[in-house]
Design a protein that fits this description.
Layout (H helix, E strand, L loop, with lengths): L6 E5 L2 E4 H21 L2 H8 L5 H26 L17 H29 L7 H26 L8 H12 L3 H16 L7 E4 L2 E8 L3 E5 L5 E5 L2 H4 L3 E2 L7 E9 L5 H14 L10 E7 L4 E9 L6 H18 L19 E2 L2 E2 L1
Antiparallel strand pairs: 1-2, 3-4, 3-7, 4-5, 5-6, 8-10, 9-10, 11-12
Helix pairs in contact: 1-3, 2-3, 3-4, 4-5, 9-10
């Protein structure tokens, strides 16, 4: 027996040699190297060629790297002289290592099938159905979730994990949902309600909980809203159920804008009205039906107050920009027509007393 084959120490009934330690270190290092390679950009680009979503690629590469690391660690332990049978059931869980790896692989396949189902329905099968695009997305999302849930149940049953044995676990989960996970459950159910009732759809401009922007994604737990500053805000779905929601495009994409304008007393009010309407019509995004109009609101302290009303569909996603453009045009047309926009004025009446002006008494 050589020096490398002599026992160094015992683990249970098995002894470990120096040669076994060298083999352990070599396999462990190989596992680390392969795990790092699986997390590289080259591998991610390879999976992206199969038209897999970026988030799903990250999940797959992470699971594969962890699985390869576990595989080589187990191989290293066997090489060190401590046998771990691949087909022998592990204590307590009654599953072998082979079954666990198979379970992981099948779950990855289920997630991939669910993702591909959603993409196929939304981009191909329902694209020419004539349904509203947001309704197509809702149908795709619901069917994708059904495929995911059914697939997970089938995988668990076929890998030896019988769902009947999970009754106690399901009860514990129910208690957890009732306490710590109630918000997650509430948001998930709210997401299903949103997809079913469609109070908001992708592309709508909404205001909820102080957040204003365009709906980009409606996910299981939350909705992504892109603000005018190009900032993505993640809003829990429950906010769309228990809070007032302003949807600018719920039934009609056309939106009416109101702009107050004050002109000086003595101005020709009919000329002011025509000038304001002309300013609104000059903007390319102003709709001709309904046509813009101007109202004389009231006689203020310093101005005659008008209100310009203009409808738009295209600029409803950029309300601040549209108002600014109209204000520029209003100023341009009023100036060209010689109509004054006065500063605030006040009349001062003195009943008694004395006011000193530059040392003079009045």
């Amino acid at each position: 027996m050589t020096l490398l084959e002599r026992p160094l120490f015992y683990v249970g009934e098995h002894y470990v040699t120096a040669l076994g330690l060298i083999a352990f270190a070599g396999l462990f290092a190989t596992g680390l190297l392969i795990a790092r390679i699986l997390q590289s950009d080259a591998v991610r680009r390879f999976f992206s060629r199969f038209k897999i979503e970026t988030k799903f690629v990250a999940v797959v590469t992470t699971i594969l790297s962890l699985a390869s690391l576990i595989f080589f660690i187990i191989g290293a332990i066997n090489a060190a002289g401590i046998p771990l049978a691949w087909n022998a059931p592990l204590p307590a869980i009654k599953l072998s290592l082979v079954q666990i790896f198979l379970l992981v692989a099948l779950l990855i396949a289920v997630f991939w099938i669910s993702s591909r189902t959603k993409r196929f329905l939304f981009n191909r099968l329902l694209a020419d159905s004539g349904l509203d695009r947001s309704l197509q997305y809702a149908i795709s999302q619901v069917i994708s979730n059904i495929v995911l849930v059914v697939g997970i149940f089938i995988v668990l049953e076929n890998t030896g994990i019988h769902l009947g044995a999970l009754t106690v676990f399901a009860g514990a989960v129910g208690v957890g949902v009732g306490f710590g996970l109630q918000n997650i459950a509430s948001n998930f159910i709210s997401g299903l309600v949103i997809l079913a009732e469609r109070p908001i759809t992708i592309g709508d401009r909404v205001e909820v909980a102080g957040i204003v922007g365009r709906v980009e994604q409606i996910r299981a737990r939350s909705t992504v809203i892109l603000t005018s500053d190009n900032i993505a805000m993640i809003v829990p779905n429950s906010k769309f159920i228990d809070s007032p929601v302003t949807n600018w495009h719920y039934s009609d994409p056309r939106v009416r804008f109101r702009l107050p304008v004050g002109v000086a007393y003595g101005s020709d009010v009919n000329k002011v009205r025509e000038t304001l309407i002309a300013a609104a019509r000059e903007h390319s995004a102003t709709l001709s039906d309904p046509e813009p109009t101007a109202y004389l609101e009231k006689f203020g302290d310093s101005t005659i107050d008008f209100e310009l009303v203009a409808w738009t569909q295209e600029m409803s996603y950029k309300p601040r920009r549209f108002k600014s453009d109209l204000n520029y045009l209003i100023y341009k047309h009023l100036t060209a027509a010689g109509i004054e926009i006065p500063n605030p004025q006040r009349d001062l009446h003195i009943r008694d007393g004395v006011i000193k002006v530059q040392g003079l008494e009045i």
